Structures are given as C-alpha cells and as structure tokens.
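Ex. 9. Protein: Protein SHQ1 homolog.
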Amino acid sequence: MKTIVSTFIEQKITDIRSGSSEDCVDSCGYGFAWRRKGILGHLSKEIGDLVELSDPEHSLISGRYSECAKHDIQSFDAERYLLDFLDPEESLQHSIGEKFDLKLDVNADDRKRLKDFPKKKLPTLSKEEHYRVALSLIDLWESVKQAVIACVRRSLCYPLYRNWDLSMKVLMDTKTIVQEGRSALLHVLSTIHGIFIDSGEFRYLFNDLFVTDYCIWIQFVEEEILETLQNELAVVEVFKSDLGLDLEELELEGKMAALEVKQNVELDSDDEPE
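Predicted structure tokens for Protein SHQ1 homolog:
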C-alpha cells in the first residue's frame, strides 16, 4: 500500500472519540464516513447558516441527495445565470480560458500543516464505504456521475459566477487533479484545510468533520480505490439536461429576448432623423 509517511511526523495526540461512532454509520450521521453526531446540533445557534440542513441531527442520509437537489433547484436564479451566459464579465472569460498549471506536489506548507494534525485512528470501513468516501465529502453518492451532477448543479446556483463553461472547466481541472494521484489530492486537501482555518465564521468545523480525516485517509487508502475513482471520473460526462434546471430552454429564451432587444434598438436608431 502506497503511503506518504514523511508527512506524518511528530503529531500531537488528541482524543477524537467525542461526537463520533467509530465503526457504525448512524442513519443521520455526517462528517467523514458519516460517523459524526451531536456536533452541529450543539453549535446550531452559533454557526447560523453555515450548514443548510435545518435539523442536521435528524436528517436521514438516505434522503439527503433528493433534498439537496430540491434545495438547489429552488435556489437556482435564472436571471443571474442568464447574465453570466449572455454577458460574461472579462474576469469570467479569463477564468474559463485560463490554462491549468498549478503545482500539485506536497510542499513545505503542507508538511508543516500535516505535522500538527492529531494522530488518530480512522473508522473501519468496508471496500464499498471507502469507494463512497472517495466520491464525496457530504452525501452518500451511488456513482461518480451522480456526484458530478450534484456538484455541477450547485456550481450554477451559489458561486459568484454561474456559467456552464466555467463549470465544465472546473470539472476538467478536477479530473486532472484526480488523475495526478495521491500526492496531488493530499496537496489540494491540505490547501483547503488551510483556507478553512483562516476564513472564520466557524468554517474550521469543515476541517474537524471532514477535511482533516480526508487528509489522513488519502495517504493510506488502497490504490485500487483511487484507480477506480480515476477511471470512472475520466470518462464521466454531464449534460445540461442532467441537472433539472431547464438550462437549454432558458438559454434559448434568453438568446431570443436579447435578439429582440437588439432589433428594437436598431429600429429605433433607423427612425432617428439624420
């Protein structure tokens, strides 16, 4: 089994048993491998809207995918999407066309951060659970395609820029990172960990619940699991019709409306006296 042992030195040992069930998935569990309970409920007043589930302690894992999809579809802003579709800002166009050239090696900052991670034992997982952990941080995805559809849909509902071409660019970059393998994924996870530490508003909870454990897990998970993820993600395709947002119809209506406005402007200019 391939590991990155040089990143795991002089670790602090802490008790991580509180709020977790080591080897049993609760029907309403969350966090890494869905083993955590009681944490979000205890902090619900402090964290505000950080977690979109109204009652995370009683949210059934089995229903989260459909509830998440329903929430995203209701949150979709057609006018906002059309704005980025018909009149993309220069910075958006630049992002879409930018070449992926990030260095993905584990660096000194990663090693320093990982050295301070708690030394902990991850829950015992079956092969199927390892596969599902590889698919997502949150929901119990059944397939790579399902995970990708959900992520692309959310990318068109919440970020600063909501553009299909940008979402496809991010998907391609994600495929590149995953294909680079274990070290690249560890570097990205470590970088995310650092961002959550510095971003405030209780976002460090995402590290406590997910990212720290993922940084440990990615170093020791069997190569077969990573290869399965790489192979399935490499060939997955997602189409606008998969998202349930009626994007194709919306774009057509937007183009027709923009054309009508343009024609009216041209007619008005023709009517002006010379």
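Check your answer against this statement. The mean pLDDT is 86.
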